[in-house]
């Protein structure tokens, strides 16, 4: 299995490139067959997240740094 890049290490890009995306095959071992995973609640949470993003209810790096008092490097 390929290792994902360490996103905590600064580089010249903000987001992983498409080649860094996890292949769908890596999701085969997700515990959707596990009865302790509430798939309906997971789906609802994802829909709420998408609605928050669409409504602009998100936080950027500057807001997070200001809230927690973390200076820029």
Tally of helical segments: 2
Helicity range = 25-40%
> How is the main sheet built?
none
CATH topology of the domain at 40-73: Arc Repressor Mutant
Secondary-structure map:
Elements: H1 39-54, H2 61-68
Biased composition (Acidic residues): 12-27
Region (Disordered): 1-27
Description:
This protein has a domain at 40-73: Arc Repressor Mutant (Orthogonal Bundle), CATH 1.10.1220.170. Helix content is 33%, strand content 0%. It is an all-alpha fold and 73 residues long. The model has no long low-confidence stretch (mean pLDDT 76). The protein has helices at 39-54, 61-68. Residues 12-27 have a biased composition (Acidic residues).
Overview features:
Arc Repressor Mutant; single chain
Give a brief outline of the structure.
Residues 1-27 are annotated as: Disordered. The protein has 73 residues and is mainly alpha-helical.
